[in-house]
Amino acid sequence: MTHDIGNIEKKNELLADFITHISFCDSKTYRILNNVQANPQQNVFADNLETDEIAISLVIICKNEERCIGRCLDAIAKNKRAKDEVLLIDSGSTDKTLEIVNNYRFVKVLYVKWNDDFSEIRNKGILDSKNEWIFFIDADESIEKNSLERLRKYIKVITTLGIKDMVCSPKILDTNGYEYRGVKRILNKKSGIKFYGRVHEEPRKMKSALGTDIQTISFDDIVLHHDGYKKEIIVQKDKIKRNIKLLEKMLEEEPDHPRWKYFYCRDGEKTLSVKKYENNLIKAIELSTDESQFYYKIRALSDLIRFYCVHNDLGRAKDCLNILQNSCPDLSDVVFWNTEIALFQMKDTTRMLLDTIIKYQQEHREIEYGSIHPLYYHLDYLCAVCFFEIGEYSKCFSILKKLESVGYENYRNKLTILKSELDIYFNVGDNGKSLSINI
């Protein structure tokens, strides 16, 4: 009897740990877990809670990754078990990648021809993997200590609950400060799930379902560290140009999938025409009708708000913000854009005030016997303040210098604090010396 109670406690601990580390799951999975929590008396777990039988195939796709492939494999070596498989699929490396890989005896290497299709390579990995559970890790990523052991426990829960079409996402920590929690990398080979899309590929059971036919879950303690989005690496590997080319093909193949429209705008923001960028974001929002497509809607709305703010179309920015706020009221983007739009409006008000002052000065040339200054130097000073507030600093300081030259105030003393703070800010030169700022 004591043994049985202890076993139940272990089962409850395993389930509690599983639920604690979920950062996101779809509504169907949520209902399953909620039902299990609401009915703790139901013994849904098998007696064997050990994870020794769970072997994982770690699949790496790469081409010319001599910079980072050793780091990736070193991290895997510290985490893997003897029954785990490491399968590396190379699509034509011409650098020292394969020479480095040859130093790792546990790695099985497959060679494939690159056909402008990442899904084709991932599906080759699914087909050729020997283990039931598959974890895709990119060459520019390294797995964090204990992540695989945690995954084995979570696989145990997923299997026990009978969830057959589950795709799991690790937490990916990027060197640029971003965290990615919905990149679907872990799946069961027997589920029949495959990847679709030439780039930014996604798992599906049926191609026509556009990713709506799977269950998803993200864990915050299965962690990959990634550095492939450093600017110098993006430039070196020409990722943006490659991605846009492949996304344009996906827009032709699946024109009604919001995923391709969103990523096309995200990756091509600096190269697309203004109209094409705007129209594709709008279409991505309109097409995002399923729960699984919520991410595209939210990100496209946020990007569209930024676009309208940049183009000083605050009316449309507000319209998009209202939709975003109704869709996801607690999102930090809502707070940001509410504040940003208010600041844009303040700048617009400042410009209007500036125009009013300039117009007054143009219409009043005669000496005016007001109580401040007969030659309107006080209005010149206000113009300088307005120019400073809207970011036109050269005009601001030009006016201040002219006012000083005629003896109207000495602004250098007032700007000493600003100069001091700027000197501190710019103290990041290669030689460590403060950059000189002349006022």
What is shown here, in short?
The chain has 439 residues and is an alpha/beta fold. The chain contains 17 helices and twelve strands.
Describe the 3D structure.
The radius of gyration is 29 Å and the shape is elongated. Strands 1, 2, 3, 4, 5, 6, 7, 8, 9 and 12 form a ten-stranded mixed β-sheet that branches. A two-stranded antiparallel ribbon has the order 10-11. β3, α4 (97-101) and β4 form a beta-alpha-beta unit. α14 runs antiparallel to α15. The longest helix has 32 residues, at 332-363. It is 51% helix and 14% strand. With 439 residues, it is of the alpha/beta class. Residues 1-8 and 429-439 have low confidence and may be disordered. It has 17 helices and twelve strands.
- Give the termini separation: 83 Å
Which structural class fits the helix and strand makeup? alpha/beta
On the 0 to 100 scale, the average pLDDT is: 90
Low-pLDDT parts are 1-8, 429-439
Task: Classify the oligomer.
Answer: single chain
User: Quick one: how many beta strands?
Assistant: 12
Radius of gyration: 29 Å
Helical segment tally? 17
So what's the overall shape?
elongated
State the order of secondary-structure elements, H for helix, E for strand.
Answer: HEHEHEHEHEEHEEEEEEHHHHHHHHHHH
Largest sheet report: 10 strands, mixed
Portion in beta strands: 5-15%
- Residues in helix, %: 40-55%
Summarize the SSE layout with pairings.
Elements: H1 2-20, E1 22-25, H2 27-38, E2 56-62, H3 69-79, E3 85-90, H4 97-101, E4 107-111, H5 118-128, E5 133-136, E6 141-143, H6 147-160, E7 166-174, E8 179-180, E9 186-188, E10 194-196, E11 202-204, E12 215-226, H7 231-237, H8 239-253, H9 258-268, H10 274-287, H11 294-310, H12 314-327, H13 332-363, H14 377-389, H15 393-405, H16 411-414, H17 416-425
Parallel strand pairs: 2-3, 2-5, 3-4, 7-12
Antiparallel strand pairs: 1-12, 5-9, 6-12, 7-8, 7-9, 10-11
